[in-house]
Design brief:
Multicopper oxidase, mainly beta, 5 helices, 21 strands, five-stranded mixed β-sheet, 437 residues
Length: 437
């Protein structure tokens, strides 16, 4: 992707390791059996490189009961959109008479790539699996289903916002990391920012101080903060907190430090996917959706919009960011849902749109926030969030935690220092050619 400027194309879909590559040999379809009149739980996980999927079973209703391991008030649907990294628990209720509903009692299980959230070299096989009701092989052998899919929307999006209602209600508090008196949040120190714009930039090269590989020239990489992210495997941030100012000064580490907070206080963040604005130091913006994943927390999804955050005078568009100046980023703003909002840890950032998320400052540590498209994360689309820095050493000191980490790091450095272990052992500097995420 970096050398050509073109995103790679996908070649096939798998369900639990089973699928067809292009026009090659057709393997047996992935198959599950249902008992008539009984409920069956399926755990749906999207582990794709670059595709949001729409999952469905012909002529069956899915009862959605969990999103990213958060129990929700159940709702019924014929299909479910699953972004990369997202997990859904669903109940499939078997028909009372599976053979009466559909000939042979067989039904297609489909994984349809979402429009504008996928790129395939050729049309993939979407009939990914078979749901059967008869465990005894018929005299003429197993038959492929003749079922037809229901009509549903396949646009790139998350499940409907108002459907994801947590079973256990919770209420979000105002942000501890946003000063309502700040007139221009973009003038804050880089490590105190709370608005992050996803885009690309030409970075690195032989005359650059950035540690990117390859470095024969500048390449276009993804980013969302100061620079494309790149962590050194041999120098983990968790063991370098005594050098915090040094870390902050390195733009490629993309450090965001949060104010000291108590367990019941909230941190808010805004993530945008601009089209072509704002104009920032050569950064390139174009519409693309990104499944954003936060480690260490579930977050509340206060708002998710496909409208631009920024103004665009060329087309007369007024950005929605004007509704959320620092003095309005609080729970008194009726455009934000603080009363039992959706709760999860992966959210689809809409192309040209934005999301506003919040999480409790109740898990001191260093947490990655990154895009779950594999080559975006590898390219540098990530930041690291340092939460309650002063409390981390005490937590690490429990039960020999720090010693165990240091021992692992010593073993790692001993292995890594031998060039023969490198994939490109002729060039030891090429050991790590991605962001480290």
């Amino acid at each position: 992707m970096m050398s050509t400027g073109v995103a790679p194309e996908m070649t096939n879909i798998l369900i639990n390791g089973t699928g067809q590559f292009g026009w090659g040999p057709k393997p047996e379809k992935y198959t599950i059996w249902l008992d008539e009149g009984q409920a069956h739980m399926l755990i749906l996980v999207n582990t794709a490189v670059d595709t949001t999927f729409v999952f469905s079973i012909d002529n069956h209703t899915l009862e959605v009961i969990e999103a990213d391991f958060v129990p929700i008030k159940p709702y019924n649907t014929t299909h479910i959109k699953i972004g990369i990294g997202q997990r859904y628990h669903v109940l499939v209720h078997g028909h009372e008479n599976g053979f009466k509903t559909e000939r042979y009692g067989n039904y297609w299980m489909r994984a349809t790539p979402a429009r504008k959230c996928s790129k395939f070299a050729f049309g993939p096989d979407e009939q990914m699996g078979i749901v059967r009701y008869n465990r005894t092989m018929p005299p003429r052998g197993w038959q492929d289903p003749l079922s037809e899919p229901s009509l549903y929307d396949t646009m790139c999006a998350d499940e409907p916002y108002d459907k994801l209602v947590p079973w256990r209600p919770w209420t979000v508090g105002d942000p501890v990391n946003i000063d309502p008196k700040v007139e221009n949040p973009y003038t804050l120190p880089n490590n105190s920012q709370y608005i992050f714009n996803v885009g690309m930039i030409s970075s690195g090269g032989p005359n650059s101080s950035m540690p990117y590989i390859p470095n024969d020239k500048a390449y276009t990489r993804w980013m969302m903060h100061e620079a494309p992210f790149r962590i050194n495997f041999s120098d983990p941030t968790l063991l370098a907190l005594d050098r915090i100012n040094e870390l902050i000064d390195k733009p490629y580490l993309d450090v965001v430090t949060l104010p000291n907070a108590t367990d019941d206080q909230w941190v808010w963040m805004v993530i945008t996917a601009p089209d072509k604005i704002p104009q920032e130091g050569g950064r390139i913006f174009f519409p693309a959706a990104h499944p954003m994943h936060l480690h260490g927390h579930d977050f509340a999804l206060l708002r998710q919009s496909n409208k631009n955050w920024y103004d665009d005078s060329e087309i007369g568009h007024e950005g929605e960011g004007r509704w959320f100046t620092p003095d309005k980023l609080n729970c008194r703003n009726d455009k934000l849902k603080c009363d039992n909002p959706p709760r999860r840890d992966v959210v689809l950032l809409p192309a040209t749109g934005y999301v506003i998320i919040a999480f409790k400052a109740d898990n001191p540590g260093i947490w990655i926030l990154h895009c779950h498209i594999a080559f975006h994360a590898s390219s540098g689309l990530a930041i690291q969030i340092i939460e309650n820095k002063e409390r981390i050493p005490e937590i690490l000191g429990r039960h020999g935690g720090r010693e165990a980490i240091e021992e692992s790091c010593e073993s790692w450095r001993a292995w890594q220092s031998n060039p023969i272990n490198h994939w490109d052992w002729h060039h030891p500097d090429h050991f790590q050619d991605d962001s480290g995420v």
